[in-house]
Design a protein that fits this description.
Structural class: mainly beta
InterPro entries: CheW-like_dom_sf, CheW-lke_dom
CATH architecture: Beta Barrel
Protein name: CheW-like domain-containing protein
Strand order of the largest sheet: 9-1-2-12-11-10
Organism: Paraconexibacter sp. AEG42_29
Number of helices: 1
Distance between the termini: 32 Å
Strand content: over 45%
Helix content: under 10%
Shape: globular
Number of strands: 12
């Protein structure tokens, strides 16, 4: 398993593969969409010339914003505080929670600090299709 970018949320520690994270910026740079905004879309971010949709689907406090690139789609994700990068041992990823709670979770990782929920980056990108 590749390295993971770990970040806080009200649900505990979450993580995404470092391979899909293109950067971390301040959440204050998000421009809200006019009402009625699509469900789960917090607004837009302009890190350069393009405007990126920003998802708010993890219930985080929004201190940081992860810039992601998944399957050719670029978007932002509101995150709590990015805390560290962790390289899990081979075979360390456990199953995702059952039911609706696991819809965005690819698996779990036990660490010295507790359980980290590994977010499914493809399920996040699919949320963009549902929002449009």
């Amino acid at each position: 398993m590749s390295a993971l970018v770990c970040f806080t949320s009200p649900h505990g520690l979450l993580a995404l593969p470092v391979a899909v994270v293109r950067g971390v910026v301040d959440h204050l740079d998000v421009v809200p969409l006019p009402a009625p905004a699509p469900v789960g879309v917090a607004g837009l971010l302009r890190p350069g010339r393009e405007a990126l949709p920003v998802l708010d689907v993890l219930g985080t406090d929004g201190r940081h914003l992860l810039l992601l690139s998944v399957g050719g789609r670029r978007f932002g994700l509101i995150a709590g505080e990015v805390t560290h990068v962790q390289k899990p041992a081979a075979g360390a990823l456990g199953p995702s929670p059952a039911g609706p709670a696991g819809a965005l979770i690819a698996g779990t990782l036990r660490t010295a600090d507790g359980t980290v929920l590994v977010v499914d980056e493809h399920a996040l990108a699919a949320r963009l299709d549902r929002a449009s």
